[in-house]
Amino acid sequence: MSRLRCRPSVGIAFLLVGFEAAAAAADFQHDVRPILAEHCGHCHGPDEAARQGGLRLDDRSAALAGGDSGSPAIMPQDPGRSELIRRVTSTDENVVMPPPDAKKPLSPEQIRTLEAWIAAGAEYSSHWVFVPPRAPTPTGDAPHPIDAFVRNRLEGSGLEPAPPADAATLCRRLHLDLVGLPPSPDDLTSFARDGCEETVDRLLASEAYGEHWARPWLDLARYSDTNGYEKDLKREMWAWRDWVIAALNRDLPYDTFVIQQIAGDLLPSPTQDQIVATGFLRNSMLNEEGAIIPEEFRMVEMFDRMDCLGRAVLGLSTQCAQCHSHKFDPLSQDEYYGMVAFLNNSYEAKSFVYEPAQLDELATIRREVTAAESGIRELRPGWEDELATWERGVVAALPSWTPVVMDEMHSAGLLTHPTHVENAAILMLGHRDQSMIFESVPALRGATGIQVEALCHGDLLMGGPGRDGSWALSDLKVEVRRPGSDTWEAVKLVHPSADFESPEHTAPKPNAKDARLTLGPVAALTDESGDTAWEADRGELLRHQPAAAVVQFEKPLDLPTGTRLRVSLQNLNLRPDFNHENTAVLGCCRISLTKAPAPVAPAVDHAAVLAMRTPPAQRTPADKAALFTAWRRTVPELASVNAEIAALWGRVPRHLTTVMHLAERPPEMRRVTRFLDRGGWNQPRHEVTPRVPAALHAFPADAPLNRLGFARWLVAHDSPLAARVAVNRIWQAMFGAGLVETPDDFGTRAPTPEHRDVLDWLAVDFVNSGWSQKRLIRTIVMSQTYQQSSRVSAEALARDPLNRLLARGPRGRVDAEVVRDVTLSAAGLLTNHLGGPGVIPPVPQNVLDYNFFYPDYWRPAAGADRYRRGVYLFRKRSMPDPVLTSFDAPNGDISCARRPRSNTPLAALTSWNEPVFVEAARALAIRLLREAGPDDASRARLGFVLCTSREPTAAETAALADFVRMQRQRLADGWLSTQVVASGGGESLPPLPPGVTPQDAAAWVLASRVLLNLDETLTKN
Predict the structure, then answer these.
(1) Which tops the pLDDT comparison, 212 or 120?
(2) Mean per-residue pLDDT for 670-683?
(3) Measuring CA to CA, which residue among 268, 173, 321 is closest to residue 688?
(4) Which of 22-26, 226-230, 712-716 has the highest mean pLDDT?
(5) What is the enclosing helix (H) or strand (E) of 449?
(6) What is the structure's pLDDT at 38?
(7) Is the distance from CB of 328 to CB of 45 less than 8 angstroms?
(8) What is the C-alpha to C-alpha distance for residues 757 and 751, in angstroms, rounded to an integer?
(9) CA distance readout (Å), 163 to 618, 637, 787, 808, 1016
(10) pLDDT band at 950 (very low <50, low <70, confident <90, very high)
(11) Which of 946, 974, 663, 834 lies closest to 238 in space, CA to CA?
C-alpha cells in the first residue's frame, strides 16, 4: 500500500516542477495577451456591443467575475477550476471555445501557457505600447546602446553578430539609406579617406536627404497629383510635397512637423508655410462623380483622415472603431468620433502659394496700403463720424431682401452638388457644370426684383466666390409654375445693376474660330446671349470678395400661393472642356426676393453691405476693413490716395501655384459632430464633443479643444505612441522591417518586438534630443548593428530567416523610386533640381486610352526634366505609373505605412524595357566609352563601380568583356541593328570618343543593360 501511495506522489512532484517552470516563463505581455487577443478578443474584448455571454477577458476584474454563467472565467492559482481552461480544453463542440466555426482553435502549447499563467496567479499588465516608454539601461561592453541590447538578445539565442561590412558595401548602404542615391566613384574615395562619421554628416546635410526621406511620409499622407475616383482630375498639391522635403532638410523637430501639418493654420499669425503644411490631411481622394451625396463623401474623407493619423502618428488601427468599438484595443466608438470631432470643424480650403520673393512683395504692398490708410485717418480725425453718417445713409436706401431657401437644387448635367449652407447660401461643389438650377415655393405675390449674391465660403479657392478664382455669369433666367400647371412661364427681367462690374473686355470663344466672348457689364444677365457675361473681377487677391447683382421684374409679380419658382444661372464657358479647373464658375451664391419698388444694387462694395447688416459689436476685422474701404472711395478729397492704393493692389504678383489645405470654421459656424451608428453617414445619433481615448495619455487641461490642441496631444512628450511609431518607421526604412513588424498597428494583436528595449531606448532618446529625425538616423547608422555585413550562413538563415534578431546587416531591393534614381544616377542622367510641379513620365498609349477621362495634359517631360528624381513624378491615382507599380509603389488611394516587396517577372521586364531604363542604358554606354580607358576591361571596371559601388572580380570583368565581344559579332553579322540599339533608330548618336565606332556604342548599350539589371545594382549590396 505504501509503495502504491508513493508512486503517484512522485509523479505529481515531477508535474508540479514542470508546471512551476512553465508558470515562471508565462509572461502576460509576451505570451498570454497575444493568445487572448487572437482567439478570444473578438467576442470577449473591449467592444461591449459585440461581447458574448457578458464575459470580458481583456480586463482582470471582469475575467475574475465571469460572465452570464456566473462562473469565474479565471480562478488565480487554480486552472483546474477556471471556466476559461474548461472551455478551451473541452471536446464538446457546444462548449469548446473558441467555437469550431471560428476556426481558431488553441494549440496544446497555448493551452499549457494559459494554465501556467493562471497557476502563477493570472496577473495582468497594461499592454506595453499604452505605457509611455522608459529608456532601459544597456548592459555589456558594447559602446553603442543599440549594440548592447542586440548582443544581449543574440547571446540568449545562440547567434553571433556578423562581422563589419566592407568599406564599399557600407558606403553604398549609407548613400542609399540616407539620400536614396548610389555613391559615385568620388564618393567611394571620400569615404575611404574621411570615414563613416564625416560621410554621414555630409549626407544628412544634403538636399537629397529630404527628397529621399519625404517618400515614406508621402506614402502615409496618400500623396497624389489627382483627385481619384471616376474622373480623377488634376489637383495642385506639389507645394505641400515640397514643404515636406524642406521641413526634413532643415530637420524640423518631429513634434513640430506633425503639429504644423494638422493645425498649422491655427498657430499664432500662421505663415504661408504653416498653412501649406495642413495640406497633409487634404491629400485624400475627392469624389466628383454625378449623383453622389456630398455629405456622404465628406464623411468618407473624415474617416480617411482618421485612418491616416492612426497609421502615421498613433500606430493604431483606428478605422476599426468607425463602425463599432475596437474589438481588441481600448478604443471605443464614442472615443473614435471624439477624435473625429477635432477634425470635423474645418473648411476644405484652397489657397494661392507664392514664391519667397513674391511674399516679400506682398508684405511690402500691404505695409504701404496700411500706411496710406493710416494717413487718411490722420488727415481726417473725424473719419469715424463721417463713416457712421455715410453708413446710415446707405442702410436707409437699401431694399429689404428675403433669402429664398431652395427645396430642389441641381445642375443641368447633374454633376455639381449644390447644398444649402449658412444663411440660405448655396454652395456648389463637385464636378463643374455650366448651368445651375434652383427651385422653391416662396411667397411671390408683390415681388419686384431678384438679387443674386456671389458669396465667399471657406471651401472655395481663397474663400470664393469663384470655384477657381474669377467667375462670370452669362445668363439669369427666372420662371414660375402656377399651382396645378405643368407649364413654366418666363418672368421678364429688366434693369440689371450690380455693386461692381469689370470693364468690358473680350476672350476667345471655345471651339469657335475667330469668335469672341464679351465679359464685364451686368447687362449680360438679361440679354439672353451665351456669349456675354457679368464679371466682377477686381484683380489678383481682390477678386475674392462678395458681389451682388439686382434685376427688376418687368412688373411686380401677381401669383397665387403655391406658385413654384425656378431660377437658372448660367456660368460662362471659357475653355474647350468645361469640366476642368480654371473655368469661370461661381462657387457660392444666394437668391433673394424683394417687394421694394424699382430695386437697384447700391454702388457700394457688397462686402461693406454685408458688414452693415452685422451688428457693430459682432463685426470682424474684415468687416471693419470692408466698411472703411468702401467709405474712403466715396470721399472726393481722397481721390489721389484711393488711386495710390489701387495702384498698389495692381502690383500684386501672380501666384506660383495653389494648395488644398485646412482652415478652421469660426465659432458661430461650428459643425456639430455626431456618433454615426455602424459608421453610416446618414445614421447620426447623439452629439459627440472633442475627446481623446482614455487608455492613452491625458489631454492637457490648458489645450484648446480644436485641431491645434489635438495635434499637440498627439505628439505630447508623455504620449506612449508618437515617438515609438516614428522611430519604428525610420528603422523600417533602413532595415526593411520595423522593430514592430506592423508599423500601422502597435495594438494588442501586433507581435511583441524582439528588440523592444531598442525601440524604447531610441524613442526616449528621440524625444529628449528634441525630436530630431536626423539625429535619430545618425544614431542608428553609427551602430555596429547597422554597419555589420549582410552575408549570412545557411545555419543562421535557417534559424532567423527574417533577421528579426538582427544578427546581420540590412539587405533588400531598394524601393521603386530609388530603383529609377539609381539607374539614372549610374547613367549620369539624373537631374538634381529641388521641388516644383510633378514631372509627367512616359507611359504606354494604351494606358492613357484606358482612362475614363482621357488626360489631355499627359505630355511626357523632355530634356533634363525627364530625368528628375522619382519623388517628383506626377502621380495619377487611377493610372498608377507602370514603372513604380511594378516595384510596389502605392497609388495613393489610402495611407500606406509599409510597402510590400515583391519579386515578379513584371519588375524584371520593367527595368529591361521601359523607356527611361533603355535611355539610361544608352547614356551609361556613352559614359563608359567617354570616361573609362580605351579597352573593354577598363570600361567593365567603371561600369561595375557605377552600378554596384565595388570593383569587379577578374572573372566578372572577363565575363562582361566576353559578352561585349559577342554582341559586337552579332551586330557585325546583322542580327541586331546598330542604329536601333545605340540610338533607338530615329536619333543620331551623340559624338563618340576618338577610335570608338557606332558598333562599340551599340555593344556597350547591351552590356549596360546587363549592368543596370544586376541584382547588386537594384539592392543595397
Answers:
(1) 212
(2) 95
(3) 321
(4) 712-716
(5) strand 449-454
(6) 85
(7) yes
(8) 15
(9) 72, 86, 9, 8, 20
(10) very high
(11) 834
Q: Given this model, what pLDDT does residue 15 score?
A: 35
Q: What angle do CA 348, 360, 252 make, to 5 degrees?
A: 60
What would the pLDDT profile of 224-253 be if each residue is shown by its tens digit? 999 999 889 999 999 999 999 999 999 999
Between the CA atoms of 303, 881, 888 and 210, what dihedral angle is there, to the nearest 10 degrees?
-80
Q: Rounded to an integer, what is the distance from CA 651 to the centroid of its chain?
A: 35
Q: 743 near 219, Cβ under 8 Å?
A: no
pLDDT at 853 over 90: no
Chain position carrying cell 513588424: 741
Please enumerate in sequence order all residues whose Cβ is within 8 A of that of 374, keeping only pairs 6 or more positions apart, or say none. none
Distance CA 204, CA 179 (A): 8
Paired strand residues for 490: 479
User: pLDDT (tens digit, 9 = 90+) per residue, 886-944?
Assistant: 999 999 999 999 999 999 999 999 999 999 999 999 999 999 999 999 999 999 999 99
For residue 150, give the H/E element and its range.
Answer: helix 145-157
Distances (CA, A) of 568 to 438, 525, 563, 586: 6, 11, 16, 13
Q: Closest Cα to residue 726, out of 220, 173, 245?
A: 220
Q: Residue 726: left if φ>0, alpha if ψ -120 to 50, beta else—which one?
A: alpha
The CA distances from residue 282 to 235, 240, 562, 946, in Å, are: 11, 10, 44, 40
Pairing of strands 532-535, 516-520: parallel
Q: What is the pLDDT of residue 8?
A: 34
Burial classification of residue 775, based on how many CB atoms lie within 10 Å of its CB (0-12 exposed, 13-18 middle, 19 or more buried): middle
3-state secondary structure 721-788: CHHHHHHHHHHHHHHCCCCCCCCCCCCCCCCCCCCHHHHHHHHHHHHHCCCCHHHHHHHHHCCHHHHE
Among residues of the chain, what percentage have pLDDT more than 70? 97
Exposed (0-12), middle (13-18) or buried (19+): which is 356, by Cβ within 10 Å? exposed
**Contact status, residue 364 vs residue 726, Cβ threshold 8 Å:** no
What's the average model confidence in pLDDT over 407-422? 91
Query: Residues in the chain, how many?
Result: 1021
3-state helix, strand, coil in the chain (%, to 5): 45, 10, 45
* Angle ∠(347,352,353) on CA atoms, nearest 5: 120
N-term to C-term CA, the chain: 73
Q: Which has the closest alpha carbon to 106: 180, 54, 32, 43?
A: 32
The residue with cell 517552470 is 21
749 against 538, higher pLDDT: 538
With vertex at residue 879, the alpha carbon angle to CA 877 and CA 880, rounded to the nearest 5 degrees, is 75
Q: How high is the pLDDT of residue 581?
A: 64
Torsion of CA 711, 715, 719, 722, to 10 degrees: 120
CA separation for the pair 1020, 811 (Å, rounded):
6
Please give the model's pTM, rounded to 2 decimal places.
0.92
- What dihedral do alpha carbons 737, 741, 744, 748 form, nearest 10°? -170
| pLDDT surpassing 70 at residue 9 | no
> Cα(958)–Cα(691) distance, rounded to whole angstroms?
69
Residue 314 per-residue DSSP state: I
| Beta bridge mates, 565 | 440, 480
Beta strands in 463-578 (DSSP E): 472-481, 489-490, 493-498, 505-508, 516-520, 532-535, 547-553, 564-571
Task: Count Cβ atoms below 10 Å from residue 935 Cβ, excluding itself.
Answer: 10
Report, as an integer, the average pLDDT of 315-342: 95
Q: Which residues pair with 438 in a beta bridge?
A: 409, 567
The mean per-residue pLDDT over the stretch 819-848 comes to: 96
- Is residue 10 scored above 60 in pLDDT? no
Contact 476, 591 (CB under 8 A): no
Instruction: List helix spans (H) across 105-144.
Output: 108-119
Distance CA 531, CA 508 (A): 10
